[in-house]
Amino acid sequence: MAKKLDIRIMDLDAGRLMVAEGVVKIAVRKTGKKAHVTMMADNLGIARQGLMDRVPLIVIDGKIVSESKAILLPDVVKLLEGLE
User: Fold this and answer.
1) 26: which of 6, 32, 38, 47 lies 20 to 30 Å off by Cα?
2) Strand, coil or helix: what is 37?
3) What is the per-residue pLDDT for 28?
4) Start-to-end Cα distance in the chain
């Protein structure tokens, strides 16, 4: 049985974050992966982790896989296909 991925999207801009969530969910469906997708727009939380200058971020199972660039569907599909 395939492991369920823990995907977290972090950004300071709530609007951009919501768009990114949709993109990631579509990519998950397209690749047939199982995933729990969460969003984080908490400025203080992101700052405490030292990630302010690296947003938007995609973190999969605790590892940063995309940072400081737009979250686009082809890129996310490629990231997910490259896992395991």
Assistant:
1) 47
2) strand
3) 97
4) 13
